[in-house]
Amino acid sequence: INDSYGHAAGDEVLKLVARRLRQVVRMSDTVGRLAGDEFIIVLTEVSDGDVGGQVAEKITEVLSEAFQVLDAELFCLPSIGITYYPDQAETVETLLRNADIAMYHAKHSGNDRYLTFSSDMAQRSVELMNLETDLRHAVNREELELHYQPKVGGDGRTVVGCEALIRWRHPRLGLVSPGDFIPLAEESGLIIPIGRWTLAEACRQFMEWRRHGISPPSISVNVSVRQFNDSQFLDNVRDVLDGTGMPAGCLDLEITESVMMGDVERAVSALNTLKAMGVTLSIDDFGTGYSSLNYLKTFPIDTLKIDQTFVRDVEHDTKDAAIIATIVSLAKNLGFQVVAEGVESREQMDFLRSNDCSLFQGFWVSRPLPATDFSIFLKNSAA
Ligand code: C2E
Ligand code: CA
Ligand code: CA
Ligand code: CA
After folding, report:
1. Which listed ligand is nearest to 179 at the C-alpha?
2. Which of 7, 189, 197, 370 has the most C-beta neighbours closer than 10 Å?
3. How far does residue 126's CA lie from ligand 3's centre (Å)?
4. Which of ligand 1's atoms lies nearest the C-alpha of 307?
């Protein structure tokens, strides 16, 4: 069970969960608290093959109802793993391990609230667990690096900024992309030291470019929800700015709409503090989150980044085209800048331009580049 902030749920919440779970099952079944926010349910004398799935759906439903009553802002998401005795395991240890592995996969799948154990899961989870162990050392062993992708203006070549994108140079696996380890980093809390490193490294690199007279006007750094919600985050930003001598106005922080799913007041106050420091703020992946447009009024943001899923088929899909046109005019009317991400072709760029969007990022301009290659790109585009 995790709450909507991605934190482990509090004790009060867990008691409620336990009560509700007991209502879902029969007298002959068992509900136990395994550890922390993990529960175990033993269903006896199950004949029909998919009873586990039915119970899992019921649990999800009952919990979401319970939390709507408790607090409309809060929702608790269970991840459920199912395994069957004696088909899949005969000992208690193996049953528990199977259920745990299936639960772990449900949690990381993004879509599935519950999954039934299968033997290929076991193999994959060994890999994932190894990855988590390795990630623990990645910062100290200096295995992380940042690549930089230019953000350009309407002419398609004037660099107006760049986005720092993290990579992990794994000793065995080679270059691991953030999609493969950021979720793991968030789940394990490692995103806090990793995020701190990223911020410091991006600012350090920016100042180095500046000393060589080639820095882009600004640099954007991705901030994950868990990092944003960390109590040290604001101090960390302040320390990095002070420590590197980075002008605050050259630092842009990219957050997603999901920061709205937590404590809104706290989020607004944190964003105001950041604005007061002088940094600029972008909403990343705009249009893919779950939050209402209402926050656009209260959030002191500067830029909306149109998610690349809308850009991908823009020439063929009239709905995507309409969405983009709408986001651009929304941004203009509210006084935000708007950046289109994932621009891969001249046609896409032309469409965006004709719809009043004049800031772009994407493979059409350049892939994210290692720092040295990016310096060369900067020198060439300045020439
Ligand atoms: P994002 O912030 O939306 O970053 C854009 C992603 O799209 C990057 O993937 C980038 O390489 C890719 N991209 C850029 N142009 C194109 C294009 O024209 N076509 C296509 N198909 N893709 C394009 P990447 O580097 O793999 O990063 C994936 C995600 O990982 C990022 O999505 C961001 O959410 C996260 N991430 C990356 N670096 C960091 C970081 O330092 N901290 C945190 N918290 N998250 C990060
Ligand atoms: Ca948890
Ligand atoms: Ca981003
Ligand atoms: Ca994005």
Report:
1. 1
2. 197
3. 30
4. 3
Atom of ligand 1 nearest to the CA of 305: 3
CB atoms within 10 A of CB 225: 21
For residues 319 and 170, membership in a common domain is answered with yes
What ligand 1 atom has the least distance to the C-alpha of 361? 15
pLDDT at 168: 95
Helix (H) or strand (E) holding 240: helix 233-244
Q: Residue 349 CA to chain centroid, in angstroms?
A: 26
Same domain, 99 and 180: no
| Residue 35 CA to ligand 3 centre (angstroms) | 35
Q: Give the number of the ligand closest to the Cα of residue 288.
A: 4
Q: Do the interacting molecules here have an ipTM over 0.90? A: yes
Highest mean pLDDT among 3-17, 83-97, 169-183, 229-243: 229-243
pLDDT value at residue 68: 67
Distances (CA, A) of 361 to 46, 260, 295, 320, 327: 54, 25, 25, 18, 16
Q: Whose CA is nearest to atom 7 of ligand 1?
A: 342
Residue 174 gets the label, from left (phi > 0), alpha (psi -120 to 50) or beta, of left
- For residue 122, being part of any structural domain is answered with no
Same domain, 80 and 216: no
Matching residue, tokens 């850009």 = 311
Does one domain contain both 318 and 359? yes
- Whose Cα sits closest to atom 10 in ligand 1? 368
Is there a single domain that holds both residue 198 and residue 297? yes
Tokens of 292: 């209402």
**What is the mean pLDDT of the segment spanning 27-34?**
86
Within a domain: 256: yes
Residue predicted with more confidence, 140 or 4: 140
Condensed to tens digits (0 to 9), the pLDDT of residues 364-381 reads 999 999 999 999 999 988
Pocket of ligand 1 (CB under 6 A): 149, 165-166, 177-179, 182, 195, 198, 222, 224, 284-285, 308, 341-344, 361-363, 368
Whose atoms come closest to the Cα of 255: which ligand? 3
pLDDT interval class at 272 (50, 70, 90): very high
Residue 3 is assigned to a structural domain of this protein: no
In this predicted structure, what is the pLDDT of residue 5?
A: 52
Nearest partner of 194 among 231, 149, 256, 146, judged by Cα = 146
For position 70, what pLDDT does the model report? 59
